[in-house]
Amino acid sequence: MARAEHTVSEEIPAPPDEVRDFYVDLDNIKRVHPLVVAVRATDRRQTADGYVQGYRVQDRIPLGPLRLRISYVARLHVPDVGDVTAEARQFPWIRLRTT
Predict the structure, then answer these.
(1) What confidence tens digit (pLDDT) does each residue in 45-68 have?
(2) Which of 12, 30, 39, 59 could be stapled to 35 by a disulfide with Cβ–Cβ 3.0 to 4.6 Å?
């Protein structure tokens, strides 16, 4: 299985709680991610330390003169305190994990 790791960091001039609240609502991701064109919340369940939120995300990926429409499932684990983690699964066997 092929693996790759990529780290991105960005300085955002806002209080950490505001930034966290913005990014845990994937409806906002369309405003900052150039490929995302649609996001739909699918399910949400409470956990002992926060909640897990599921989404269906749709991207449009440019490929020359064409734009490929790709849909995938994303799941965010949002604890009341601490790091948010996410996992996105896309066909075929592509999995992206983030913190």
Answers:
(1) 999 999 999 999 999 999 999 999
(2) 59
